[in-house]
Amino acid sequence: MHENATGGVDRRSLLGWGGLAAAGAAAAATPMVGAQPAHTAPAPAGAWIPRDCLPGGAYDRYVAELAAADRFSGVVLLSHRGRTVLSRSYGMADKERGIPNHERVAFNLSSAGKPFVAVALLQLAQQGKLKLADTVGTHLTGFAEDIAEQVTIHHMLAGISGLDSPDEDLQRVFQSREEVHDYYEGWARQSRLVAPVGTPTDHAGAEIAISAMIVEAVAGTSYWDYVEEHVFRRCGMTGTAFATRPQWLTDTHIAHAYMTLADGSRVDAVRNLDKGSPHPYELGKNPARLFIAAPGDAGFATAPDLVRFAHGLSDGTLLDRPWADVFTAAKVPHGPASFGAYQVPVSIVQGQWVYSRAGGDPGGGANWNIYPDTGWVGVILGNHDDFPLVEMIERETQAVTGGR
C-alpha cells in the first residue's frame, strides 16, 4: 500500500528502508479509555523521563485518540534503560475468537525482521566463518556470473548491490516450509544485476534472500532455525518465532492480520486466503498465503521481545561491541541526517543517533526504534494496514528526543 502518512501505512516507503528514513522525522496525565496498560516499572532513580513519554503524556494521548477513531489496533511500548515507561494495547488480535491485543501477542514484522539476517551474517563473520567482502560466488552456486563475482555480502546488507528482483507469485498458496524454501531459492537465482555494484537498490528482496542462503550455506542449517537459536533464544525472545500459517491461525498469542479491501472493509487475511490487497504496489498480495515467512524476511515478535533484541545488540549478547558497531555504522547517505547501515536505517535526530526498522504488509505494520545515546527503545506493532505508521513513528521520536 502506498498512502500518505496520515492516511495509512505507507508500505512503499517502509519497504525501501523504513523507520525514520521513511518518516523523515524531525520533534497533563489522564487515563486513556479503552487502553490495556501493562505493568510499568518506575524509572531508575535520577533518570529524567520526558513528560511526553509518560502515561497520560502527549504520545499516549495521541495513540489513544487514533484507537478511539478506529485508526490503530495493536501495541505501543516505550522502554527506558530496560524498564517499561509506557505500554498500551488496543483492538483485537482475533476478532472471531474475541482475543484482544496485549503485550504478549506477537505481530507480523514484515520488513522490520530483515535486520535479523544482518545480525546472523555478522555473527558468522565474528567467528571467522565468512568475510563481509566475500562475493556471492564464494558461498553459493547457480547465480549469474556477474552477481557471483561482483556482489559481496557487504553490498547486499548495505542495500547497494545493484540487484533487481524477479516478480513474485503473489497468488500462490504455499503448503510447507520446504515449498517456501525451494521457491525462494529459485526466485533469488533469477535475480539480475541491473546497475553497477555500489548503486543503491529500491528494496531488492533478492539481497535478503541471497543473504539468508549464505547463512544457511555457512551455518549448515536453515535460516529460520539459525535465527531462532542464535538470535531469539540468546536474547530471551520467548514470544518471537517464524510461525507457520497453521500456527498463525490457531495460536492465541499471534495477532491476525486485518487487511483493507477496495470497499474500505477489513477482512482477516489468515482466514481468507482468497482475498488480496487492492493496492497497485502489492496488488493481490495476502501475506498469509506463505506457509512461513520467506528466508530473511518477517517473523512474528512481541513488543517486549523487540526491546530484548535491542538490549542484546548493546550488551554483547548478540555481537561483540566492535561487530555491533559494524552493524549500526552509517554506510550510505539517504538524506541530510539519515543513512543506511546493515539493513537498518540510522538517523541523527536532535543531536542523537536513532537506529530503526519498519515494515508493512497487507493487514499490518511494525516499527522498532533504538535510541542508543539515551537508553530508550520504542516499538509500534499493528494488525490493521490503514493506520498512520509513519506519523506514529514521528510522534514517538518527538516524544523521546524533544528535549527538556
UniProtKB/TrEMBL annotation:
InterPro entries: Beta-lactam-related, Beta-lactam/transpept-like, Diverse_Enzym_Activities, TAT_signal
Pfam family, one: Beta-lactamase
Occurrences of domain Beta-lactamase-related (ranges): 60-387
Listed name of the protein: Beta-lactamase family protein
Source species of the chain: Actinacidiphila acidipaludis
